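User: For my dataset I need records formatted as: sequence, then structure tokens, nothing else. Please produce one.
Assistant:
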Amino acid sequence: MNKEIKIENHVISENSPTYIVAEMSANHNMDFNRAKEIIKAAKESGADAIKIQTYTPDTITIDSDMPAFRTKGIWEGRTLYELYGKAYTPWEWQRDLRDYARELEIDFFSSPFDLTAVDFLEDLEVPAYKIASFEINDIPFIRKIAQKGKPIIMSTGIAHLEDIDLAVRTCKKEKNENVILLKCISAYPAPYENMNLKVIPNMAETFDCICGLSDHSMGSEIAVCAVGLGAKVIEKHFTIRRADGGEDSKFSMEPHEFEKMVNEIRNVEKALGKVTYELNEAQMESRIFSRSLFVVEDVKAGEIFTSENVRSIRPGIGMHTKYWDDVLGKKARCDVKKGTPMDWKYIE
């Protein structure tokens, strides 16, 4: 698999900064100006990309009141068709939103949900595609996206291991290895105890690809922890104010929360650093406060060095403590004053 993937001006790799995606989803609340406000706020909060969704109620489901088409969880009491009728992003907005994102220099791409949406997004020249968790088993759909040759970010929220394997193999069969897999829990909000973040490094090893997290949990700590485990992409739902309501507002971050998360992630990246046992300049300077052998009582020439007159103390400018046993029992070559760093030249 490709271990270095480029989306617009960002390179995503094992050694790159985490690619942070703000998911607008339904948080525009059917207000075009609010959608633009979300894009601007995402950019100002440190997001690398803004992601929308491309579907209509008719491209994602059918208008039916049968039990199978009724929603559950926080959307309970409505049909899927009713929910998606309030949540979708009007297609006539999307070119203008893309142009606005380009003005602000924030990456813009989308999750399509059917073949017609892929065609539409190709006309928009999106730089990447996001495949949502519930579409991971739509193989003809994945095949068509893979044929475009663009990066594919794929959530795995409802996928068995074999589902992920089939989706990845489908992309590879179309000569597209630009796949990023996201650990995901398709619950809104996602309970902490179900996150199983240890899957992230395992998934990266299993599928030999870049991995990340599509995070539906509340707060920033799960995303930050995921970065510590190797996640190179973080996706979080983003809104202006949860109090404004909307279909996804309850599990979305406000700008100040998102900015805090971004800052925490960047700090964790600095702290992760690299595998090295070399000391930096400050650490080298601090070594003076380590232990070493000192003469701690006045010693006359010919006297024996003992555990009473030679000790391991701070600072660290004397003989290494590993020589303590070699020093004890030896005679002093000359007078040595208390507080003198021990040295072989004082030993007969």
